[in-house]
Structure formats: structure tokens, C-alpha cells
Amino acid sequence: MASTVWKGHLTFGLVSFPIRLYSAARSESISFNQLHKTDGSRIKQVIYCQAEDKPIPRSEIVKGFEYEKDHYVVIEDEEIKKVAPATAKVMEILEFVKADQVDPIYFETSYYMAPEEAGEKPYALLFDALKKTGYVGVAKIAMHNREHIVILRPGQNGVLLHTMYYSHEIRKVDEFRTDLSLVKEKELALATSLIEALSADFEPEKYHDDYRDNLLKMIEAKKEGKAVVATPEPQQAKVVDILEALKNSLAMAKKPAASETAPPAPVVEEKRRRRARG
Hints:
With 278 residues, the protein is of the alpha+beta class. Among the domains are: 4-28 and 83-168, Beta Barrel (Ku70, Chain: A, Domain 2); 182-199 and 239-278, no CATH class. Helix content is 29%, strand content 27%.
């Protein structure tokens, strides 16, 4: 089981039960160490005190908040714990809203919310009720030195929790807009057909990070003393006529499906002969 990132109680109305949160996902990337170019040895980053002009150990570091230029107030960890709100231990559902009213742009980080043994029944009840009603819970929780607004929604096997950005954290860009008057009916019809031709069930396991795979292949090649092979440059065709481009795209999208489902040539010929006789 993954490590617990938060432990406490969930409450809605007069119902309260113990839960734990676990990280639902983490990104994977290739990390590199910093080496000294001349001898290939690994370098160390030193924590340095400017006032005493010398390196210092991590044990001598404290938190400080800069309230004005070069003036700080020192904050102790115990002091932070003292002012933590009630939501540091109790997560309260404030309201329920329809799932389709929540814009995904507000989603920040995802967690699995699992019940402790004593909370399995109310947890199952909440999960089932959310699935059947189409609502998600809006709650507050404090962790990682801040209070979050979160969404509780039913996943495939249990309740998922998503921390949310506050509305003031979402960037409002005036230039971000769409001029629908540019769209013509024929173009829209072809674009819709192209979307339908390329539609499929979402299967996340079929997608892979090609950049990461290419880096791993390059590292393996360098370990074996082989030359690094460059990735071919993509060929981008300049779109002159969007209508023609859509028609060609649609033809290309349909071609593989047609070849997979079309009956063998002898069968087609036999059907043609029967229609001619009939």
C-alpha cells in the first residue's frame, strides 16, 4: 500500500468516519546528476551562510518569512502546528454539486480516499450515493501547510479526491477567446465527421511517453559506446485550403477501418453476381 499523505475524519451532516488519503498518481521522468565537466565526478550543493561567509549544516536552518526587504520573522514548526485549522484533522463536506458543473481546469492533484476499518460502511454508502446521484462533494482539508478546497467523486472502485485551485489562482487571459464566426457549415460538418472517424474508447495504457523512451534508448546506446541516432524531423504540411485538408484527413482516417472490415474480393464479386441475376 502506498504511504499515507493525510489521516483524519470525513464528515457530512452528522455522519463522521475515519479515512486515509494516498497519492493516486506521480509523474515519471529521467533525472540527471550534475557532474564536474573536467573529471566526471559528481558535485555537491553547499548550503552557505552569507553573513558568516561559511557553509552551514542543515540542522542550523530555520524557516523565515520576509515581511519587508531583508527583514524576516522566524517561524518554528511547532508554531505552524498550533495555528493549523480544524480541517487539518477533520475534512468536512460543505455541499454537493453536479459533476458536470466542475471545470477540470480547477483540478490540481489526485488522491485515493480509503476508509479505516471502522468507516467502511459509511464510506461505501457515500460512494454508492455519489455514483447514483451524479453529484460530487465539495470539502475543505488542510495539508502541506495550506487549506485546500477539494472535490470528492466516485471512481471505479472507490472515492477519489482532487485538490482544487482557488478561483483567484486560475489565470484569466483576455486574449484567450474563440471567434466562431470564422467557422463555415461545411467545414464544421467535415470536422465533426473526422472526430467521429477518429473516436475510440479511452484506454490510457496504450499511451506512452516517447520522450522518456527515447532518452532511455539514448542512455543505453551511450553505455554501449554506440552513436546516438537523431529522431526524424516531423513533416508539417502547410494548410492552404482547410476544407480540402479536412476531406483528405477524413479519407485517411476511414481507410484503415475500411480495409479491416471489408470482405474479401471473391465474396464481393459473388454478391455482385447474385444481384445481377436477381
